[in-house]
Amino acid sequence: METFEIKEDFLLDGKPVKLISGAIHYFRMTPAQWEDSLYNLKALGANTVETYIPWNIHEPIEGQFDFEGLKDIVAFVKSAQKMELMVILRPSVYICAEWEFGGLPAWLLKESGMRLRSTDPRFMQRVRQYFQVLLSKLVPLQITHGGPVIMMQIENEYGSYGMEKEYLRQTKQLMEELGIDVPLFTSDGAWDEVLDAGTLIEEDVFVTGNFGSHSKENAEILSNFMKRHEKKWPIMCMEYWDGWFNRWGEPIIKREAEDLASEVRDMLEVGSLNLYMFHGGTNFGFYNGCSARGTTDLPQVTSYDYDALLTEWGEPTEKYYAVQKAIKEVCPDVWQAEPRKKQVIELGRYPVTASVSLFQTKDKLVEGIHSAYPLTMEQAGTGYGYMLYSVKLKNYQHENKLKIVEAGDRIQIYVDGRHEATQYQETNGEELLIKGNTDQEAIALDLLTENIGRVNYGFKLNGPTQSKGIRGGIMQDIHFHQGYVQYPLTLGKEQLAAIDFQAGQNSEQPSFYQVTFDLEQVGDTFIDCSDYGKGVVCVNGFNLGRYWNLGPNCSLYCPKELLNQGNNEIIIFETEGIEIQNLQFSEKPIFSK
């Protein structure tokens, strides 16, 4: 059985080893992609793979756990072991990672006033319940038990959020109590304030840094911090940022291959590194994160390509070869090989076979939840996707003031089926004047609210805007209205199967479009969304993620494992009143001009 220790060097079976690692998120790709990705990491010259573990995918509903399919962390770690890679796991309850709510589950928001990432007993009780299930799966994978896992993370960039050492201490003790006996670490930015706040160096928890440039300067900051605490540990950058994430409506961020290779060379000369990301993958479903800039929330795109060494679909890039060369220059004894390539194909064009307005089929999709005052998305559902609020207002036969109080994130307002306005978190509360049909006693008000992604980093993490849907209420004239029906729209397999495509079409309203077709062959491909407005695409019941004509991405990556030889069904949920007539596949990603 191998051993791993952290002394003045990383020691594998007592011999010094430099960790050359890359981040691959098992949950951002289909399991069939894992092997090629892991092989290409090893062929780069790496000896280690790192991954986060997001709490919210493994416990999507409190007390209900899921480790199947692309959520099978045990299978992923065993795949890495077969590839003779060591594994670094980051099971911290918060991961950031441009992932919805930084990995925290939305159901935590049901309990008012709970302080996240703190010793609040209510929070730590939930952490314990989760860790009892998760860590029981991870314990046998540790190197101390014959597995490949050499280190685990206690918390992630905690110094960029809080400074409660007792919270870190309780998390450490909980992990150790539940059987974690490999070295533990924290990772923070490379400056004194966050290192002071976010580490447990005084309790011998290994300290790592996160950065993507100025390698030697940042390494020296880490070294000096350790020296002040009388530690002589090796230097490691736990997230060596080789690219960056992207947001809707902003240009794609790129980094030159030679610039990265030069910095990687410098980093390997002074320590170890984990390339973040090696293979980025995809924010499937409703799991994209959101940035916060002042009072504005900036949701991130479905693609997590990250301008990484492998593309979103797993193809080696110019960066791959440049970094591979840099690794060989500093570490001439590493094993390297040609990476595996990825073929992407165009699978044709298919007409829409049926469509239906959401308003016509809503009662078939999900049983409406009645309440006097509006329920948030967390109270009435899972907290992800969409919530439709249906309300009957008295028709006073003249213009009436309407105001939606405290809501997030994006609300489309329909009066008697007509689109009146779209408001965002920053504009919610602005007063509207509405008028119903003169021949009706009531006004049918439908509000389609979308959670476009919870903030995953920074001061808003504990903020009130993390709760989605309508938090305050709807005001008609100057009073709060009573009487709501809520329809939580998670667009899971059961809801998709319940759509009644015969209930009535109206392309000016949010609508479902069905495309059925046969394929003689399957392959990795892209779905061209450049003629669509905003919505999601579900392939044979699997939610690929969001599209939006804001760009920069105007297509969705579709792995071949989601398609069938023979019959296929794709359902597009389009919210912008754009009539969809065709589904077009593409052999390459499409971007806005």
The oligomeric state of the chains shown is single chain
Q: How many E strands?
A: 32
How many domain modules? Answer: 3
Number of DSSP helices?
A: 12
Taking Cα atoms only, what radius of gyration do you get, to the nearest Å?
25 Å
Reported for the largest beta sheet, the result is: 8 strands, parallel, barrel
Shape: globular
Proportion of residues in β-strands: 25-35%
What does this structure look like?
This protein is α+β, with helices and mostly antiparallel strands and 593 residues long. The protein folds into three domains: 327 residues, TIM Barrel (Alpha-Beta Barrel); 94 residues, Sandwich (Jelly Rolls), CATH 2.60.120.260; 123 residues, Jelly Rolls (Sandwich). 21% of the residues lie in helices and 30% in strands. The strands form seven sheets. It has an eight-stranded parallel beta barrel, surrounded by six helices. Strands 16-25-17-22-19-20 form a six-stranded antiparallel sheet, covered by helices on one side. It has a five-stranded antiparallel sheet with strand order 15-26-31-28-29. Helix 4 runs parallel beside helix 5 and helix 8 packs parallel to helix 9. The longest helix is centred in the first third of the chain and has 18 residues. The radius of gyration is 25 Å and the shape is globular. Keywords: Glycosidase, Hydrolase. InterPro entries: B-gal_1-like, BetaGal1-like_ABD1, BetaGal_gal-bd, Galactose-bd-like_sf, GH, Gly_Hdrlase_35_cat, Glyco_hydro_35_CS, Glycoside_Hdrlase_35. It comes from Enterococcus larvae.
